[in-house]
Design a protein that fits this description.
Layout lengths: L2 E4 L2 E14 L3 H12 L4 E4 L26 H12 L16 H13 L4 E3 L3 E8 L2 E9 L2 E12 L5 H5 L4 E3 L13 E4 L3 H10 L14 E4 L8 H9 L11 E6 L2 E7 L13 H25 L7 E5 L9 E3 L7 H5 L7 E5 L24 E4 L11 E3 L8 H7 L2 H21 L8 H14 L1
Parallel strand pairs: 2-3, 2-7, 3-4, 7-17
Antiparallel strand pairs: 1-2, 5-6, 6-7, 8-14, 9-12, 9-13, 10-11, 11-12, 15-16
Length: 452
């Protein structure tokens, strides 16, 4: 086994690859599948033992609705889920549904079937550079430090850790340096969902528009007229809940898990920065206390939950925004308002500017009508500083407000498909990732769409 020098010691090089994807989350897994479809030797480095990132480890399901037509990799994943008997379409909305165990398995299979490699339980430590190029990354494994050599590198870490380590300029938070709010999701099992649905609808709740009884959603936001609000106030009066538990409540059914719901809450109050590891740890502790209160409250007050129990907690926090690279183009809310088009537009977004903020933001930005969208330029995925690095996920180059639109799962999957094509083009044509004319990638995507 070859070695490389790192801070005065020689460490083993575990792999030499065409494409090294750091982070096997929503965007990273899509990037790997895309690169493998182009016959690149591809490795995914994942800090957990489950692909899917926020989808699987933070329990963020379903995928938010979009009217943008899914690109090829997105369709491949959806089709495989359906082969696993996971119904992804509720028949009413354009959400894409899944359960986390099925998705994690499907992503793993789609990568390994294409002869891709996955290195689980490996934490990114550092990168080794030769001038403006990354030559290796360093990871911590069960056997200690090791290196991975690559021709192209993909920062799919969500926190831009590869980019920051490599010297790429970043930004974080709003104008006051405050990040979007953290969630700590959980699942409950043993719910009588038909009884819950019957109860909610009997109260003339109109929030959930889905007619298919296999899919259901409940919510409670104070002052919005939800039928659950009086029950939450009763729980508050009786000391079963606190004021902070009433900030936001939402839960979704899980296809393939007939008594289970996934909860898009609690929102963790009082944590103003997601970039401080001490505050993230505080968020876990506070969030776990809030989860326990909700888990005890629901069986006591809400019909259908009488025999429900805590099934699992997320294994990572729901971080909506932390760092963002300052790439060759910074996508802004003005691009949202103008429905921007770019010669190098490689993905489309139509989600509204959805800021879960610790303070009231000035976000009077209209939602799109069906068929409207903006494009994300290739230049927002590449940097000035590092020639063989591309970035995919919530941390691409954008402003704080614009990031609140582009961060949803269907959009970052489409970024991943473009990034995989770009890595293949870079290797096959010996062109640096940050020197590729993004219009070439846009054209490739159009050709793929036309042939599908």
């Amino acid at each position: 086994m070859t070695t490389v020098a790192f801070w005065g010691r020689d460490i083993p090089v575990l792999y030499e690859m065409d494409c090294v994807v750091v982070g096997g989350g929503t965007a990273g897994a899509a990037t790997a599948i895309s690169a493998l479809e182009e016959k690149l030797k591809t490795l995914v480095v994942e800090k957990t033992i489950s692909l899917g990132g926020t989808q699987t480890n933070s329990l963020v399901s379903p995928m938010m609705p979009t009217h943008v037509k899914a690109q090829r990799v997105n369709r491949i994943i959806t089709q495989r889920l359906q082969q696993e008997n996971i119904e992804t379409n509720d028949g009413t909305t354009t959400c894409s549904w899944f359960n986390v165990e099925a998705l994690s398995y499907v992503l793993e299979q789609l990568i390994t079937e294409r002869e891709g490699k996955i290195l689980y339980d490996a934490n990114f430590i550092d990168c080794i550079k030769d001038q403006e190029r990354i030559t290796h990354i360093v990871v911590n494994t069960c056997n200690g430090l090791a290196a991975i050599k690559g021709k192209t590198f993909v920062d799919a870490t969500a926190d831009a850790i590869v980019s920051r380590t490599a010297g790429v300029a970043v930004d974080s938070g709003n104008q006051d340096g405050q990040n979007q709010q953290i969630s700590f999701r959980f699942e409950m099992g043993g719910i009588d969902i038909p009884e819950l649905r019957k109860f909610i609808l009997s109260q003339n709740e109109s929030f959930c528009k889905i007619e298919n009884p296999d899919f259901f959603e409940i919510a409670m936001v104070p002052g919005k007229g939800h039928v659950l609000e009086p029950f939450f106030h009763k729980g508050l009066a009786n000391g079963d809940l606190t004021e902070e538990d009433l900030r936001y409540f939402q839960a979704f059914t899980q296809p393939g898990k007939p008594t289970v719901m996934s909860f898009n809450c609690p929102h963790i109050p009082g944590i103003y920065q997601t970039t401080d590891p001490r505050l993230r740890s505080e968020a876990v502790i506070k969030g776990r206390e809030m989860i326990r209160r909700l888990v005890h409250f629901l069986p006591k007050y809400i019909p259908g939950f009488e025999k429900a129990f805590l099934l699992k907690e997320a294994t990572q926090l729901g971080i909506r925004e932390s760092y963002r690279i300052m790439g060759q183009y910074v996508l802004t809310e003005e691009d949202y308002l103008s429905r921007a088009r770019f010669a190098d537009g490689i993905a489309r977004g139509d989600w509204y500017i959805d800021v879960h903020s610790v303070k009231k933001e000035d976000v009077e930005k209209p939602k799109y009508s069906r068929g409207e969208y903006y494009e994300i330029p290739y230049r927002s995925l590449v940097t000035h500083e590092v020639s063989n690095l591309i970035v995919v996920g919530r941390h691409i180059s954008s402003t704080f407000l614009m990031q609140a639109s582009l961060r949803i799962q269907p959009t970052v999957r489409d970024m991943g498909q473009a990034a995989g094509l770009a890595c293949a083009y870079s290797v096959q044509h010996s062109v640096a990732l940050n020197q590729i004319d993004g219009s070439v990638i846009k054209q490739q995507l159009a050709l793929e769409e036309g042939s599908s």
